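Exercise 7. Given the encoded structure of a 237-residue chain, write a plausible sequence.
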C-alpha cells in the first residue's frame, strides 16, 4: 500500500513538472543569484507540499492550487536568500528616486555606466538593484490574500463591513480559487501594486517611485483592482 502511495505521488510530481517550469520561466533568471535548476528544485518542493495538502473536497483544481504553492515556495526561498528582502526593496525605491532626479536634470534616459558614475555605485550593486526589480512581479497569492504579518490583509480590504465574512478557514477553502483567478486576470502592474501595498507594506508614494508614475495614478490603479476583486467576492456571497 505504501509503495502504491509513493508511486502515485511520484507520478503526480512527474506529470506536473511542466507547471513548475512554467512558473520558473516567468522569472528573469539572468538577473538572479540563483541558478535555474535551484529554482526548479525549490518549485518541486512547493509541488510536493501541494500534493500532501491538497483536498479535492474544496472544489479547487489541483493545478491551480499547486501553482500557488510552487510560487509561494520560490518566493519564500528568495526572501530567505535576501533577493527580495524589505531592505532591497527600500534600496530600489531610493535608486528610482535618484534616477528620476538625474533624468530630469539631463532630460534623457541615462546609461548604466552614467547611473553608476552619478550614484557612486558599482556595476555589481546596480545588478542587484535590477535583480530586485525583476523579482517584484512574483506574487505569493496565499500571502497576498491571507497575510498574517500585517494588521489587515487584502481580504479585509475587499470585504464589506455591512456583510461580515465567514471564518477565515472557510474563506481559504471557498474563496482562494475565485480570488486568485481574479488576481491573475489583473494586469501585471495591478498585481504588482497589490503585492507592494499589502505584502511589502509600501505607501502609495513609495510605490509610485518604484513604478515611475504619479501617486494619484497608483491610487487609481489600486482602487480599480480592489473594485474588481470586490465584485468577485460579492458574486460568491
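Solution.
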Amino acid at each position: 500500500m505504501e509503495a502504491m502511495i509513493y508511486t502515485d505521488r511520484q507520478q503526480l510530481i512527474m506529470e506536473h513538472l511542466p507547471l513548475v517550469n512554467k512558473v520558473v520561466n516567468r522569472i528573469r533568471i539572468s538577473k538572479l543569484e540563483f541558478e535555474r535548476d535551484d529554482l526548479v528544485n525549490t518549485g518541486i518542493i512547493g509541488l510536493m507540499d501541494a500534493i500532501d495538502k491538497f483536498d479535492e473536497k474544496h472544489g479547487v483544481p489541483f493545478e491551480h492550487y499547486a501553482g500557488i504553492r510552487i510560487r509561494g515556495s520560490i518566493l519564500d526561498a528568495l526572501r530567505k536568500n535576501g533577493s527580495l528582502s524589505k531592505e532591497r526593496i527600500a534600496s530600489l525605491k531610493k535608486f528610482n528616486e535618484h534616477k528620476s532626479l538625474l533624468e530630469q536634470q539631463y532630460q534623457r534616459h541615462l546609461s548604466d555606466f552614467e547611473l553608476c558614475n552619478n550614484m557612486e555605485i558599482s556595476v555589481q550593486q546596480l545588478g542587484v538593484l535590477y535583480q530586485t526589480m525583476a523579482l517584484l512581479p512574483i506574487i505569493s497569492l496565499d500571502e497576498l490574500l491571507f497575510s498574517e504579518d500585517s494588521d489587515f490583509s487584502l481580504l479585509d480590504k475587499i470585504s464589506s463591513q455591512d456583510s461580515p465574512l465567514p471564518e477565515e478557514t472557510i474563506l481559504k477553502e471557498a474563496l482562494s480559487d475565485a480570488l486568485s483567478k481574479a488576481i491573475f486576470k489583473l494586469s501585471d502592474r495591478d498585481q504588482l501594486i497589490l503585492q507592494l501595498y499589502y505584502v511589502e507594506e509600501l505607501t502609495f508614494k513609495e510605490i509610485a517611485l518604484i513604478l515611475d508614475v504619479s501617486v494619484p495614478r497608483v491610487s487609481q490603479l489600486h482602487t480599480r483592482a480592489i473594485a474588481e476583486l470586490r465584485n468577485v467576492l460579492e458574486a460568491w456571497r
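Remark. The chain has 14 helices and no strands. Students should compare their own answers with the one above.
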